[in-house]
Amino acid sequence: MRKLVILGGGYGGMRILQRLLPNNVPKDVKVYLIDKVPYHFFKTEFYALAAGTVPDVDIRMTFPNHSPLEFINDWVEGIDLEKQTVQLKNNGDFSYDHLIIGLGCENNYHNVPGADKYTYGIQSIETTRKTYKALNNLPIDSKVAIIGGGLSGVEIASELYESRPDLNIALFDRGDMVLSSLSVKIGKYVQNWFKERGIAVVNNSNITRVEEGILYNHDEPIEFDAIVWTAGIRANKVVRDLPVKKDKKGCVYLTPHHNIPGYENVYVVGDCAHLPYAPTAQLAEAQGDQIASVLQKRWNNEPLPEELPTIKLKGTLGSLGKKHGFGLVADRSLTGKVPRLLKSGVLWMYKVQNS
């Protein structure tokens, strides 16, 4: 019996399972999903969980339950590409014939001293739960710093304002304007939205050090009661430790068929893959579609195309609380209630399609 092992039940892993199960797996192939948590979580909604505006149960679903699939609840500690084994914390070495690595990402602290020790995050369900507890136990008028003015930082700042309007929130961003990767129109809209609500935006910041309760911006100390880090990501440590070609964030370079060069039976999906796009759930799902197709062709001994179709992303949607939002769709900047409704609709559709 051949073994397909999927590491991580995130957006990419879930899409692959959706495409393969229950009828597109050969009878001599057994599928194993290995994840440290027993649910699929909607990571795009972790900002709301951390802020306290949605409960844990609203942003998760159970994994598929089909006879070709077996779920193993365990931690991945290493991968041996030569021996074709995965090292698990509780189950030891686990062999595979085909492997899909979708272990996600971690915070990238950019070598800022103290950032890893004295800040909270939202890159995993475990860290998000800790962040929720810390933020929602703060006394009235506490000061909260959010480091990073990208999508995650903007969304958690706005959601925290709705959850805890009694807090003093400051968002630190390296650029001249938040959301610099989208558009000037969106950046101005979001900064004005924050200004109208008394949320401080510190542009052109440079966080040089973090101590307990103290943030250093351009080496100037500022006291805070809680500091949340959303200033970039890097690949999971297990992936960073692989002896293969990676970029500066530890993401793996792949062939046109999404496998590691020299290991056509090992694929990487999602935040651990080096791709010409910013990592998103949408990208992981599109990549998952193509990996499922490649797998089926290889199982059936069919020739692979030299190139797969170019992945076309639909755009980016973000929220400013429950009533406002922003988006860049088909190169068109959207602000206000419409993009917020669109984002809610996307989440609803995702739940329906995967239920």
Automatic annotation (TrEMBL):
Keywords: FAD, Flavoprotein, Oxidoreductase
FAD/NAD(P)-binding domain segment(s): 3-288
Organism encoding this protein: Pallidibacillus pasinlerensis
Superkingdom: Bacteria
The keyword Oxidoreductase belongs to this UniProt entry's keyword annotation: yes
Alphabetized InterPro entries for the sequence: FAD/NAD-bd_sf, FAD/NAD-binding_dom, NADH-Q_oxidoreductase
Cofactor: FAD
Entry annotated with the keyword ATP-binding: no
Record-stated family: Belongs to the NADH dehydrogenase family.
Name under which the protein is recorded: NAD(P)/FAD-dependent oxidoreductase
